[in-house]
Write a structure and sequence with these properties.
The complex is a heterodimer of chains A (648) and B (148). Chain A is of the alpha/beta class and 648 residues long. In chain A, 25% of the residues lie in helices and 23% in strands. In chain A, the strands form twelve sheets. In chain A, strands 10-7-6-18-29 form a five-stranded parallel sheet, covered by helices on one side. In chain A, strands 20-27-21-22-23 form a five-stranded parallel sheet. In chain B, strand 3, helix 3 and strand 4 form a beta-alpha-beta unit. Classes of the chains: A alpha/beta (648), B alpha/beta (148). At the A-B interface, helix 5, helix 15 and helix 16 of A face helix 1, strand 2, helix 2 and helix 3 of B.
């Protein structure tokens, strides 16, 4: 024992939980004999108010410098006893809690063996504590402002819950308007509630919120930094329309001579080069798409500007970069549709009567290419419709998961067609594997559809059917028969948004085997990520319906508001690793191994530098360092080896 | 002491988040764990320096265990993979010191796997009991004579 150290042992009986097997009194007498040990005490329950008071009194009366407690798991009471030391005026890290309950008394029948094992563990702690250093809690300045990437419903909900007088939210959306995929639906399941009526007021709230800086038609190009102190670079793409002047009168669209497939209708209809995302989009301001506009191909077309009564068109508009400081980042980049051409037997191609579910949503939507008229490409009304579930889902060859939403969406579309009498006498047939409809109210819809004559054919795997276009109809070949349909709808799997990949890499997030962002924990920490201050919500981390996307948004906002308070400093991890500048050779081995990208390189000094805020103290760099220049606080080599020595 | 009474000394390095918790669950369920297996808690299995393992053998351990989170479950994302890499390199090196490879054991024990913790500690303890004591002096003598 180091000189001047005055050590105290406190052995807990935990009623009979420990003392029933471990002879704490014999151990106490043994420990008392060790050099530097001022006191060794036994009590019934050190975690009780009386027990804690006894420790505090003993520390003060005996002028103890270090404390070893023989008791229960560190998971249960390490924190408790650290607070006890603080109350007694000692640094909380001057303590070692030895688990002689779960790891000894409860797993050892033989009393003699249990006592010997407890003794060895306590001696190891005796060796260890003399190397314990004092560590103080550290706080850093932080901004409480937040960057939300993705203006779908999850992102909007997060932004609305976060925005406050003292907290600014930057909401960045790559498309011209808010709402994401939900803006494509005419109605939602199970109530067939008008989707626009439901979501537009929420989106309008976002637009009008003075504490949300809405950056539509913008992309996040870079994010660097750490929890409390991120810096993001955003590119505001040129819209060529001045938002303050445009009133959304639509007059500019008609004159535009360019027509291209409309991505917002999943390429079902056409749009102009100057266009809105959808009719009634929020915000309702068009943009000129540079890829297709004739002016950007060298022609002197001014038709949209000529038509504008408000001088809102500005062909000289430029992309604009802005840099923002935020404390947290919320990733809400959503999903896209599985590409059905990957299943060759489905013969999917545009221009046929085979549609993806998202295309079909547009077809039966009032804001879609046929203004909600359910018609075939030749303009005739369909008499038969086949809806195929699980396309690309739940199949190892494609996507080996259930997309959660598709069964309900197909039932909803069927209800919509029948309720709104979109096609008199239409025969709807569902080809399904299992009906996966969890949401409240869906079971009633399913039963009602059956009563109304919708057929449900259970087949082994919908991905194995064959589709063939023939004379404007589709032959659907099933294992045992062939049916003919005027139209076929494929409920394609929801897959991660490919455009988010760069962001995921930039934010150093991990993906699961399907490409969805992995949260810290799928159940109990489902919107946090291992990168502190970065959150993932909505379908970016798993296929979700509107309800769960909104819940995610509110959930992430709750976490951020409780962790990042305006004007308050941020407490950071105390037990981190540190680099001895003298010993570091600048080989950068540690930089490559750190899972949190917490280590940077100081090229002037030629050494590695640990960012104290990003480091979580795992200590893997300590082992990797060939120069022994890195130390893990509280788990230094010397401390662990001292413990080892006491154990053997 | 007769051969059958030999009780090997075994040190188990356990990570704070999974395997320490697994050992706790073994306790809560009142399973039996060999009393000769003694735990050293580190924050991550990636913190276990191969030097700790060799030092354990040098100072009297007959066996060393490294227990961490399951693949993909590491609290620190990938520290357990680093532990696996180091273990894979270290294990064949033990032959060079005349230490049987079976004296070093790495496995994944989650914070709920009390049964697995009890099982692997028992298995390793039995295996090392069969191997008999590690006589470091003999090991070093053999090693040095080989070097010459």
């Amino acid at each position: 024992m180091k000189e001047k150290e005055r050590l105290g042992f406190f052995l807990c009986e935990c009623s009979k939980n420990i003392s029933g097997t471990v002879d704490v009194h014999t151990i106490k007498d043994e420990l008392q004999k060790l050099p530097g040990v001022v006191t060794a005490e036994v009590t019934n329950l050190y975690c009780s108010a009386e027990g804690k008071a006894e420790i505090i009194e003993s520390i003060k009366n005996n002028n103890l410098t270090k404390v070893v407690i023989g008791g229960c798991s560190v998971k249960q009471h390490e924190h408790t006893f650290m607070k006890v030391l603080e109350e007694a005026g000692l640094n909380p890290y001057f303590m070692q809690l030895v688990n002689i309950r779960e790891h000894v008394a409860w797993v050892t029948e033989d009393k003699e063996k249990a006592t010997a094992k407890a003794m060895a563990l306590l001696k190891a702690a005796y060796n260890r504590v003399q190397f314990h250093d004092a560590f103080e809690k550290k706080e850093i300045d932080a901004t409480a402002d937040v960057l939300v990437i993705g203006g779908g419903l999850a992102g909007c909900e997060a932004a609305l819950n976060l925005a406050a007088e003292d907290r600014k939210v930057y909401l960045v959306e790559t498309h011209p308007s808010l709402g994401g995929q939900a803006t494509k639906y005419e109605s939602s399941f199970p109530e067939l509630e008008c989707c626009s009526c439901m979501i537009l007021p929420k989106l309008q709230e976002v637009v009008e919120n003075p504490n949300i800086e809405l950056l539509t038609y913008s992309d996040v190009e870079d994010v660097v930094g750490f929890f409390g102190n991120f810096t993001a670079t955003i590119n505001k793409k040129a819209k060529y329309v001045i938002p303050d002047k445009c009133i959304g009168c639509n007059e500019c669209l008609e004159p535009c001579p360019v027509e291209v497939p409309n991505e917002y209708d999943d390429f079902l209809g056409k749009r102009k080069a100057i266009h809105f995302q959808v009719v009634g989009a929020t915000p309702y301001i068009p943009v000129i798409d540079k890829e297709n506009c004739l002016r950007f191909k060298g022609e002197d077309c001014t038709k949209c500007r000529d038509a504008c009564m408000f001088e809102a068109i500005n062909y000289d508009d430029q992309d604009e970069k802005m840099e923002i400081s935020v404390g947290a980042v919320v990733l809400a980049t959503g999903f896209e549709s599985f590409d059905p051409t990957l299943i060759p037997n489905l013969n999917f191609s545009s221009g046929t009567e085979i549609y993806t579910a998202l295309q079909f949503e547009r077809l039966i939507s009032n804001t879609g290419p046929t203004s909600g008229q359910l018609v075939k490409r030749d303009g005739s009304k369909p008499k038969s419709l086949v809806m195929v579930h699980c396309v690309g889902s739940r199949d190892k060859r494609y996507k080996n998961y259930c997309s959660n939403v598709c069964c309900s969406a197909l039932l909803k579309m069927s209800s919509q067609i029948l309720e709104e009498k979109m096609a008199e006498g239409i025969q709807i047939t569902h080809l399904y594997r299992d009906m996966t409809i969890g949401s409240t109210g869906m079971e009633n819809m399913y039963e009602k559809l059956k009563e109304e004559g919708v057929r449900f054919l259970k087949i082994p795997n919908p991905n194995d059917i064959s589709l063939n276009q023939q004379n404007g109809q589709v032959q659907v070949t099933l294992p045992e028969k062939t049916i003919t349909a005027d139209m076929v709808v494929l409920a394609t799997a929801m897959v991660p948004n490919k455009k988010a990949e760069k962001l995921i890499e930039m934010l150093m997030l991990s993906k699961d085997e399907q490409g969805f962002v992995l949260p810290t924990h799928r159940k109990i920490d489902a919107v946090s990520t291992p990168i502190e201050g970065v959150f993932v919500i909505g379908s970016a981390n798993y296929p979700k319906d509107i309800t769960h996307s909104i819940i995610d948004g509110a959930g992430a906002a709750g976490k951020i508001t409780s962790e990042l308070k305006p004007g308050k400093k941020l407490e950071v991890e105390t037990l981190i690793s540190t680099i001895d500048e003298e010993k570091c050779s600048g080989c950068k081995t540690c930089i490559s191994i750190c899972p949190y990208k917490a280590i940077g390189y100081d090229s002037e000094k030629g050494i590695s530098i640990i960012n104290e805020i990003l480091c979580r103290g795992c200590g893997t760099c300590v082992v990797a360092c060939p120069s022994n220049a890195i130390t893990a606080r509280h788990f230094e080599d010397i401390t662990i080896l001292a413990e080892l020595g006491g154990l053997l | 002491m007769t051969e059958t009474e030999f009780q090997p000394k075994i040190v188990a390095f356990v990570c704070n988040w999974c395997s320490y918790g697994g050992a706790d669950i073994a306790g809560s369920k009142r399973l039996q764990v060999p009393s000769n297996v003694k735990l050293i808690r580190v924050m991550c299995s990636g913190r276990v320096d191969p030097e700790f393992v060799l030092e354990a053998f040098r100072t009297g351990a007959d066996g060393v265990m490294i227990l961490g989170c399951h693949p993909n479950d590491c609290h620190y994302i990938e520290g357990n993979y680093n532990a696996l890499k180091r273990y894979t390199i270290l294990k064949p090196l033990l032959d060079q010191f005349n230490i049987e490879q079976d004296r070093l054991y790495l496995d994944w024990v989650s914070a709920s796997e009390g049964e697995k913790f009890a099982r692997v500690t028992k298995e390793v303890s039995e295996r090392i009991t069969q191997l008999g004591p590690l006589n470091w002096k003999k090991v070093m003598d053999t090693h040095q004579s080989r070097e010459v």
